Amino acid sequence: MQAAAVGLDGCSGGWLVAALALGPGPWPNPEIFGLDRLESLEGALAARGLRGVRQLIDMPIGLPLTGVRRVDRLAQAALGPARASVFLAPTRPVLDALSFREAQRLAQASMGQGLSLQAWNIVPKIRTLDRFLRRAQPAAPRFEEAHPELAFLRLNGTQPPLPPKKTAEGAAARQRLLEGLGLSVGSALDAALTVEGRRVGRDDRLDALVLAYLATRPEGALERLGEGDEDPLGLPMTLLAPRIP
């Protein structure tokens, strides 16, 4: 099995995975594929001759019982004008909600504020990941949290700000950025790809690809926002991002 850096992003119907084989010389084209269940990841990688050695995921991991995670505030501050792309993670009680109205009530009681509709829409995936990680305890979590827009912003450095990712201009700019870093992503972006019958958009693919790239970086090139914070179950409430030079 060849070691691989892995990036995961939630998408309609399941999860999107980008895997980058690690080894000497130029990187090969990234592998990109969909999963309906997180439990299938190890087998799906093995079927491609890969073994994930670092796996970054765009989804909250550690969840507080009350209040707002410090790491979410730090990520919003780091993103500046793009801060709206960071949804405040729900508290653990919100995971038990069966409706948006109930989630709002639980969020108000435990966070002191309501929950955005965007955050509510990803609660099922947060719940799935949380249960997956809790089953793995006391072993170390198999995923680390990262945020694609923060990764793109910092990798872009002092260049002009990137256009919104859902626009054609924004997608093209992000593709150029990744290719400038040595990744050949054209085939991963253009290949027909569906998860549970739903087409995977270019923006989701770019998000998974930038996290796979981030997973290749040495520790000295990374910053861990919220370092040292854990939720009551011992799961880290931190986020990996490129370190600012």
Report on the architecture of this protein.
This protein is α/β, with parallel strands linked by helices and 245 residues long. The chain has a domain at 2-60 and 144-222: Nucleotidyltransferase, domain 5, CATH 3.30.420. 36% of the residues lie in helices and 19% in strands. The chain contains nine helices and nine strands. The strands form three sheets. The protein has a five-stranded mixed β-sheet. Strands 6-7 form a two-stranded antiparallel ribbon. It has a two-stranded antiparallel sheet with strand order 8-9. Helix 6 crosses helix 9 (202-214) and helix 7 (168-180) runs parallel beside helix 9. The model has no long low-confidence stretch (mean pLDDT 92).
User: How is the main sheet built?
Assistant: 5 strands, mixed
Task: Figure out the total of helices.
Answer: 9
Unreliable stretches: none
Oligomer category: single chain
Average pLDDT metric: 92
Silhouette: globular
CATH architecture of the domain at 2-60 and 144-222: 2-Layer Sandwich
CATH topology of the domain at 2-60 and 144-222: Nucleotidyltransferase, domain 5
Largest beta sheet: strand ordering: 3-2-1-4-5
User: Strand pairing plus helix content: what structural class?
Assistant: alpha/beta
Secondary-structure element sequence?
EEEHEHHHHEHHHEEHEE
Strand content: 15-25%
How many β-strand stretches? 9
Provide the CATH top-level class of the domain at 2-60 and 144-222.
Answer: Alpha Beta
| End-to-end separation | 34 Å
Percent in helix: 25-40%
- Structural Rg: 17 Å
